[in-house]
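Re: How this chain folds, sequence and tokenised backbone to follow

Filed under: protein folding, tokenised backbone structure, sequence and structure records.

Contents: The amino acid chain and a row of whole-number tokens, matched residue for residue.

Body of memo: The sequence and its backbone structure tokens, given next.
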Amino acid sequence: MNHIFKALNDQTRRDILMLLKEKDLTAGEIADKFSISKPSISHHLDILKRADLVYSEKKGQFVHYSINTTIIDDILQWIFNLKN
């Protein structure tokens, strides 16, 4: 769970998740939405992948990313259980 909270601790990564909430995107499409370098976006995507917050799938020469809602559900359940 530490990987998840580390991943969520960065605004850029949270913004990437919000983009992926709307639709799947390639790494290039994600990078086009930010004013930081493509290698930096790749680093953020790698952290999100290691935390299982996003999936990646290579299609031809592009890598497509999608949000993993299952892990989000697990986080919410954990937080809910803290309250009860």
Observations:
- The chain has five helices and three strands.
- Helices lie at 2-8, 11-22, 27-32, 38-50, 69-83.
